[in-house]
């Protein structure tokens, strides 16, 4: 599939699975006491569409405590490979998160601008707590320091695809994370 387009595999399918299980155990341990007493206190996972959809579904299945699944779609003005920090909501939450323990589930933190905006926006809705889990982070690309409690992998500052991440809507369906061969951009 996608012969020749992927120049190297950065994170294998197995590494994704192991890390997801590890993060889920860590989150379950941290939240077990907070979300003990029933439906109204279930953890709320907010997946950011579309990139986080694979991680969101695998993470939710690996998580041994009850969690509710919500999705948001945002779009950052700017080119297809870098964001500007000016964000528009394409799909908002269906529910109120006031008083709820909320965990944002992200695919990747690049400059941090999108997430920084999202944290500010969600904070105004008065959740009981608000944290972030991200599968990937590019430490060398950070423009704004956002507090991210759970990080899967720190990766080099290269454009990556697969496992939800796309280039022009392709490659999201790959089960691993890889770097795109420069010939694809040309
Ligand atoms: P910022 O820069 O605001 O960007 O942290 C976050 C969003 O930009 C997308 N993004 C990528 N998408 N490969 C992708 O397919 C990448 O290497 C990459 N880097 C950033 C992504 O949607 C992320 O949520
Ligand atoms: Mg994203």
TrEMBL record:
Residues 22-167 form the Phosphoribosyltransferase domain. The keyword Transferase applies. Its cofactor is Mg(2+). Keywords: Cytoplasm, Glycosyltransferase, Magnesium, Metal-binding, Nucleotide-binding, Purine salvage, Transferase. GO terms for biological process: GMP salvage; guanine salvage; hypoxanthine metabolic process; IMP salvage; purine ribonucleoside salvage. One of its GO terms (molecular function) is hypoxanthine phosphoribosyltransferase activity. One of its GO terms (cellular component) is cytosol. It is found in: Cytoplasm. InterPro entries: HGPRT (IPR050408), Hxn_phspho_trans (IPR005904), PRTase-like (IPR029057), PRTase_dom (IPR000836). This is Hypoxanthine phosphoribosyltransferase. It comes from Pseudonocardia alni (Amycolata alni). The lineage of its organism: Bacteria, Bacillati, Actinomycetota, Actinomycetes, Pseudonocardiales.
């Amino acid at each position: 599939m996608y012969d020749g387009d992927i120049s190297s595999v950065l994170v294998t399918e197995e590494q994704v699975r192991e890390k997801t299980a590890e993060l889920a155990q860590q989150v379950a341990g941290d939240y077990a006491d907070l979300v003990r007493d029933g439906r109204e206190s279930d953890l709320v996972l907010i997946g950011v569409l579309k990139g986080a959809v694979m991680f969101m579904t695998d993470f939710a299945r690996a998580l041994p405590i009850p969690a509710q699944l919500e999705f948001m779609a945002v779009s950052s003005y700017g080119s297809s490979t870098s964001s500007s920090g000016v964000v528009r909501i394409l799909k908002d939450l269906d529910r109120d998160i006031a008083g709820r323990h909320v965990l944002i589930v992200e695919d990747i933190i690049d400059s941090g601008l999108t997430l920084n905006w999202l944290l500010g926006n969600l904070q105004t809705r008065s959740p009981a707590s608000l944290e972030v889990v991200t599968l990937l982070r590019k430490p060398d690309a950070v423009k704004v320091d956002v507090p991210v409690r759970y990080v899967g992998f720190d990766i080099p500052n290269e454009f990556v695809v697969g496992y939800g991440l796309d280039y022009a809507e392709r490659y999201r369906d790959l089960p691993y994370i890889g770097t795109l061969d420069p010939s694809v951009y040309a």
